[in-house]
Structure formats: structure tokens, C-alpha cells
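Schema walk-through. Below, the input block comes first and the output block second. Nothing else is stored per chain. Lengths vary across the set, and this one has 287 residues.
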Amino acid sequence: MTTYALFIGCNIPARVPQYKESSQAVLSELGISLVEFAEFGCCGYPAKNINRESFLLSSAMNLAIAEKAGLPVLALCKCCFGSLTEVSHALNKSNDLKNEINSKLASEDLAFNGTSEVNHLLQVLYNKIGTKIIKEKIHKFYKNIVVAAHYGCHALRPSSITKFDDPLSPHIFDDLVEVTGAKSADWDMKTECCGAPLTGINDNLAVGLMNRKTASAIRAKADFIATACPYCHIQFDTFQNTLNKKQETVPPILFPQLLGLAMGLNPKVLGINNVDISKIRSFLSEE
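--- output ---
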């Protein structure tokens, strides 16, 4: 069994705990063990454009904690994944910067050496486990369902650093969706921003971006929008229903929940015991 240091960041425990629950359940079935560290803190993303040193130090501390345990990192949030990856790249590129950060980490008996690989959940599923093994774990395949895979921004860009997928024509998420038997929608807005970074700052613009994506998913006849980032999920879940008063909506579903149901896992284990899942279940074959 392969072990990863699970990095859940700040948003998931407070607002999307079902993302962690469903990810843990699915990964356990696929032979992945996750370890959480109480010492993990914020990835630094909120400080990125305010205080560069705080941003670098926050991410570097988390990476150093994983290094000390000798574990690669698995991030669920794409903002966290992007931050950790960017800082790892920046410190590995500059010895002066790395030494400066390490001089501050020394007080915590930590050091960044760049030995812990950073992965997003989708990368682990696609690159480390593989669609063949995942398919063998499917209990009931979906049928007659169209799912719009929402890639988000921070995993795809800057592509030279994240190395997640082709930023112009990504396929990882689509391929994972189709392992379940669902059809991955061909929608023209799948790589565009959901508007989440602007929510609370410019709600009109945030809703406009979200509505463009939703309209694209509707045109592609999507039954659900699949997400793999807490910020994006909240945007399509909570804010799609509260901020959007005029346009038709498309329900979101966290990808590990979509996958977990197809794997035959109990909805309670997937963190969806209080959610009406009759629609998604209706697409599962009885064969």
C-alpha cells in the first residue's frame, strides 16, 4: 500500500468535509493510505499577492513536514496544489531563496530539500493508480449520463510548473469520468474559471463567469458538473443557488463521490448521507 501525506488545507474541513471523506474512502479501496499531520497549516495562497515571503514560507513549512516524514503530498484542493507546486519549484530553482526560507524553518527543526513530490487527487488516480485498476473496482457502471468535468485554473496553469495536464486540451479528468461508464461532456467552457476567486469581491462578475460555464454545460446536455476542488464545488453548489436567480442550474458532484457510488461504496462513507442522491443513483446500471 502506497502512503501519502494528505493535505486538505483550510477550506475543506470547514465547508466541504465530504470531499475529504469521499476521497479517503475511494483511495482506501484502491490501496492508497493517507496520513494527516496536525502541524500542516495554510498553503499560503491567500497571502500570495500580499506578502510573497509569507506565501513561500507557509507552503515550504508544509512541504518540509512531509519531507521529514519521508512522504509525498496528496492535495485535494487545486489552489493548495498550485501553491505547493509553485513554491517547491521556486525554491528548487534558487539556492539563495531556499537558504533564506530554511533559515526561518530551522526554528521549527524543519528544512526544505525538495524531496517530497506534490500530487493532486486526480493525478494520483490517473498517473499512480491508473484507469485500468480503477475500472476493475467499479461495481456498477453508469449508463445514459453525461458529466461535465470542470478542470479549474490552478492545476492547469502555469503548466510548466504544475505539469498536471495539457492546459489547452486536458484529458485526465475526462478519462477518469468515463472509467465510471459516464460520458464526459464536450463543453467549450470546461477549462474556464468558475468565478470563485471573485465571489464576495465582485459578485456580478463571479456570477457571470459561473453562468457562462453553466450555460455551456447545459448546451452539452450535462446531467452533472464534476468537481475536484472545494472552491469550485462551493461555487457551483452554494453560490449557484444563492447568487444565481435567473439561469437554469446544473447540479455539481464531487468526483470521488461519483466514483465511490460506482464502486459500490456506502453513501454515508462518501459523506452524502444527507444529500438526495436518487438522481445520480438512477443512472447506475443494475447489470
